[in-house]
Amino acid sequence: MTTRQQLADAFDALLEPARFKDYGPNGLQVEGRAAVRRIVSGVTASRALIEAAIAAQADALLVHHGLFWRGQDGRVTGWMKQRLALLLQHDINLFAYHLPLDAHPELGNNAQLGRVLGLQAQARFGDQDLGFLGARVQEGPFAGPRALADHVQQALGRPVTLVEGGDGPIGRIAWCTGGAQGWFEAAIAAGAQAFITGEISEPQAHYARECGVSFLACGHHATERYGAPAVAAHVAAQLGLEHRFVDIDNPA
Prior knowledge:
Elements: E1 2-3, H1 4-15, E2 27-30, E3 35-36, E4 38-44, H2 47-55, E5 60-65, H3 78-89, E6 93-96, H4 99-103, H5 109-117, E7 119-125, E8 131-136, H6 145-156, E9 161-163, E10 173-175, H7 184-189, E11 194-197, H8 202-211, E12 214-217, H9 220-223, H10 227-239, E13 242-245
Parallel strand pairs: 4-5, 4-13, 5-6, 10-11, 11-12
Antiparallel strand pairs: 1-3, 2-6, 7-8, 8-10, 9-12
Helix pairs in contact: 1-10, 2-3
C-alpha cells in the first residue's frame, strides 16, 4: 500500500518545489484518503477533470494548475465550492505543481514539449532558468518561420499564431510553455531566432518585427499537456500505482 505521504514525498523529491518562487502553493492542496492506489493526471483542476477522476475511481489527482493562487479573495463560493465539494465528497487528494512542473529537465512541461517538437535543449534562460534554448534534433534548421509554424501545428494538432520576425532559416529556438509571452525579450537576449510559447499579448508582435525574432503562440493548454502525465507516470511506476492521463479539451 502506498500512503498519501509517500506519494507527496515522491513528487516533492522529483520536482523540488522549495527551489521555486511561485504564484501559489505547490504540493498537496486538498487532503483526501490516506491510502493511494490510482492516480489521474491532467492540466487543470477543473470540475470536468475532477469528475473524470471520480469516474476513474482515483485516489489522487496531479495537475499543473491547481485551485489556489496568490491574490484570490479566499471565499469558497461558485466554481470553487463546486470543485472542492467534489474532491472532499469523494476523498480525492489533489496535488498541484506549477513552476516546478514546468522546469524539470526531463519530465517537465518544457522538456516534454521539446520532445514532442523534436527540439534538443542546449541551455536555459530567464528567471529561475525556466526557459529552454536549443535546436532541432534532426534535419537541421527550419527553412523559415512558416516551416517552423507548420511543424508545430502538425505536432500539437492545433492552429498556431505566427508573427514573423524575418524570412531566413531558423536554427536557434527558445521555448517556454503556457503564459510565458513576457519572456520573449529574455529569449531574444539569449540569442533565439524564434520563440515558442502558449500565449501572445499586444507588445510581442512589435518586438518580433523590430528585433527580427519570430514569435509563435501555440496555446496555453496545448503546450502544457505533457508534463503532468510524464511526472505522474514516472512516480506511479516508482511506487507501483495505476495511472491514467485525462486531457480535458480546451481551445486556449
